[in-house]
Specification:
This protein is α/β, with parallel strands linked by helices. The chain folds into three domains: about 60 residues, no CATH class; about 55 residues; about 200 residues, Ribonuclease H-like superfamily/Ribonuclease H (Nucleotidyltransferase, domain 5). The protein is about 45% helix and about 15% strand. The protein has a five-stranded mixed beta sheet, sandwiched between helices. Helix 1 crosses helix 2, helix 3 packs across helix 4 and helix 5 crosses helix 7. About 20% of the residues are buried.
């Protein structure tokens, strides 16, 4: 009989035993890892068993059992040891140069492209005399390891003046935080804005509903029937009330009809004393006419209703809560677009608003003044240093 060296038993802490059991039972565990975990668990549960007994109970070779019992005692790891593999064909310097190339814009290298693809990058590398020819697959593997994807892009916007941005954004974010308590004090926070040029497009064929293994089908050809501008307002924070007024795109569009006929009427119904109206810097709000309109409102209401205006920073639509409602309108009603006329479009939008107000759920606005200040803190400190220098 062949001599089998005895391996000393080893206890597993309860936490490690639980982790091994999860590895052995999880459906997504690699089979090699699960098999090694079962070996260690069996050796822990039966410390007097030999490697042959463990191998027989698990239907594996005793050589595999000895290997991983010894490996666990030496390294406390179930992973394979690093393997040397084939010799490297490309040096670290070449890889670094290619990565730097991928992190630059093609036009900076006189390549008339908006962004790199793997094939375009490999083709350009082949034109550089100091670099060897590298396949697109190899370049893709390198970039994947570095988590660099130059063929993808994401829109972003830089805040030009952080101090002025904070000065306007702070009061609005404070209103959002206190919207519920302010409503109890008779101050109603309302966000208003416009969604321009909503087209009434009628497809040549009506959309087909979804069926088994088929999505909704929409005809790509359509006839235009004009466009509408939509002026909308909603209750900040609660999102439990929304309203809108539509007008033809070629009309002189301002938000005055929405304020006068809808928002003020709703404020009187709610019996609030103050409307805190959050607006952006769009021309439809007629900022030059607003002071005169506010005075007329206070005179007409005999001082029972006042209006407070809060202007958002420039290019800060992401701080306007009405934009969230516009997104819902676009996703739930306007896309795909199929309306027989402007009247059909306007009536459908009004029906959507009625339905939305019946089923609306509170909006959990989580962005605070403190988060914005932390976001801009580095820029503000840098601006202060540059001003002092």
């Amino acid at each position: 009989m062949r001599y089998q060296p005895l391996l000393s038993p080893f206890p597993l802490p309860p936490r490690e035993a639980k982790q091994f059991l999860q590895l052995a039972q999880a459906h997504r565990s690699p089979q090699a890892i699960a098999r090694r975990a079962r070996i260690i668990l069996t050796a822990h549960a039966h410390p007097t068993w030999s490697s042959q007994q463990i191998a027989k109970s698990l239907s594996v070779s005793d050589r595999l059992v000895r290997k991983w019992r010894r490996r666990w005692q030496e390294t406390h790891s179930l992973k394979d040891l690093p393997r040397p593999g084939a010799p490297r064909r490309f040096s670290s310097e070449v890889r670094a140069q290619v990565t730097a190339l991928a992190c630059s814009l093609p036009r900076s290298h006189e390549v008339p492209l908006a962004h790199w693809s793997r094939a375009d990058l490999a083709h350009h590398v082949a034109t550089i005399p100091t670099l060897p020819t590298i396949s697109a697959r190899t370049l893709g593997r390198w970039l994947t390891a570095e988590q660099i994807r130059p063929w993808r892009f994401h829109s972003w916007q830089h805040i030009q003046n952080p101090e002025a941005f904070l000065q306007r954004a702070r009061p609005v974010l404070r209103l959002y935080e206190q919207a519920t308590s302010l409503l109890g004090q008779g101050i109603w926070v309302v966000c208003a804005d416009e969604k321009t040029s909503i087209q009434a497009r009628q497809a040549e064929q009506a959309p087909r509903p979804a069926m088994h293994k088929h999505p909704v089908y929409q005809s790509p050809r359509y006839a235009r029937h004009g466009a509408l501008h939509l002026m909308a307002a909603d209750t900040a924070w609660l999102m439990g009330w929304s309203t809108a007024s539509a007008m033809h795109a070629n009309a002189s569009s301002t938000s005055a009809p929405l304020r006068e006929t809808v928002v003020i009427a709703e404020a009187q119904r709610r019996r609030v004393q103050t409307i805190a109206l959050v607006l952006d810097n769009g021309p439809t709000h007629a900022p030059k006419q607003l002071p005169r309109w506010i005075k007329e409102l206070e005179t007409a209401s005999e001082g029972k209703l006042t209006m407070q205006l809060h202007w958002l920073p420039t290019n800060a639509s992401w701080l306007d809560q009405i934009e969230i409602w516009f997104s819902l309108l676009q996703r739930k009603l306007l896309h795909p677009n199929h309306f027989s006329s402007l009247d059909d479009l306007e009536q459908t939008i009004q029906d959507f608003i009625t339905h939305y107000n019946q089923t609306a759920k509170p909006l959990r606005w989580s962005y605070t003044v403190e988060q914005l200040e932390r976001k801009l803190a580095t820029r503000l400190r840098r601006d202060v240093k540059s001003a002092g220098a």
